[in-house]
């Protein structure tokens, strides 16, 4: 039976994934938390999931590479340097990195890309997200993923056209930009809305996570799918066949 190891096992997502594994009868290889060496777990697990913190990614990825164990990276707040490391690791092991493992957001990203491609740059795109008060990164990984999808639909690189937050006398909106707004409060598991604002009309494509089970289900499905895959960087679209 395929066994799964959890980096960040004591966290909200780590605990939700462990509960799901127990409920589904999938083997848990073990977990790591702050101060643990990730290598022993990487050596015994058939696949790994990482829902920890960006500062842990370097060591977690190095352990996965050393043990040649596939890894699903769900941690958000990653930098360009982290993404370069992930690309490098994907030359040796199977890696899937995503800001959102849910079926709903994976499909939403495809719809957003399509809408952005068809509507053209005179339709302004704004992405609004809301999360619980404990979330430490902004914009959320999902908001950035949806922004990437919209930018790709327009044939642009997100980094060239994103506007993250506004305040003060910022001037009029520049055509073709993608704006991000982040709200934090309470226990919200994750709400995302992509607004396409045209002249006299708006299209809003959104997703609301009612709990963390949806992320856990996607992460476990991705890990089981990845377990026997050769080296490469894979996507949730591939896992879910979307
Ligand atoms: N891709 C997706 O679908 C989803 C992604 N996420 C992302 O997953 C991450 C975790 O979220 P969440 O569970 O809510 O956050 P938590 O803060 O609840 O969990 C993170 C856990 O990682 C632990 N940790 C810190 N350093 C290390 C380390 N070196 N090795 C292993 N574990 C470590 C933390 O310990 P301590 O608290 O003691 O520091 C904490 O228990 C976030 O980046 C979040 O945005 C969340 C939901 C879905
Ligand atoms: O921190 C969270 O909770 C979540 N993080 C991910 C993100 O940054 O988008 C996914 C989900 O929205 C919950």
UniProtKB/TrEMBL annotation:
It comes from the Bacteria. GO terms for cellular component: cytosol. Transmembrane segments: none annotated. GO terms for biological process: diaminopimelate biosynthetic process; lysine biosynthetic process via diaminopimelate. Pathway: Amino-acid biosynthesis; L-lysine biosynthesis via DAP pathway; (S)-tetrahydrodipicolinate from L-aspartate: step 4/4. It is found in: Cytoplasm. It catalyses: (S)-2,3,4,5-tetrahydrodipicolinate + NADP(+) + H2O = (2S,4S)-4-hydroxy-2,3,4,5-tetrahydrodipicolinate + NADPH + H(+); (S)-2,3,4,5-tetrahydrodipicolinate + NAD(+) + H2O = (2S,4S)-4-hydroxy-2,3,4,5-tetrahydrodipicolinate + NADH + H(+). Residues 104-240 form the Dihydrodipicolinate reductase C-terminal domain. InterPro entries: DapB_C (IPR022663), DapB_N (IPR000846), DapB_N_CS (IPR022664), DHDPR_bac (IPR023940), NAD(P)-bd_dom_sf (IPR036291). NAD(+) binds at residues 8-13, 74-76, 98-101. The active site is at residues 131, 135. Residues 3-100 form the Dihydrodipicolinate reductase N-terminal domain. Gene3D superfamilies: Dihydrodipicolinate Reductase, domain 2, NAD(P)-binding Rossmann-like Domain. It is an enzyme of class 1 (oxidoreductase). Its EC number is 1.17.1.8. SUPFAM superfamilies: Glyceraldehyde-3-phosphate dehydrogenase-like, C-terminal domain, NAD(P)-binding Rossmann-fold domains. Keywords: Amino-acid biosynthesis, Cytoplasm, Diaminopimelate biosynthesis, Lysine biosynthesis, NAD, NADP, Oxidoreductase. Pfam families: DapB_C (PF05173), DapB_N (PF01113). Belongs to the DapB family. PANTHER family: 4-HYDROXY-TETRAHYDRODIPICOLINATE REDUCTASE 1, CHLOROPLASTIC-RELATED, DIHYDRODIPICOLINATE REDUCTASE. This is 4-hydroxy-tetrahydrodipicolinate reductase. It comes from Hephaestia caeni.
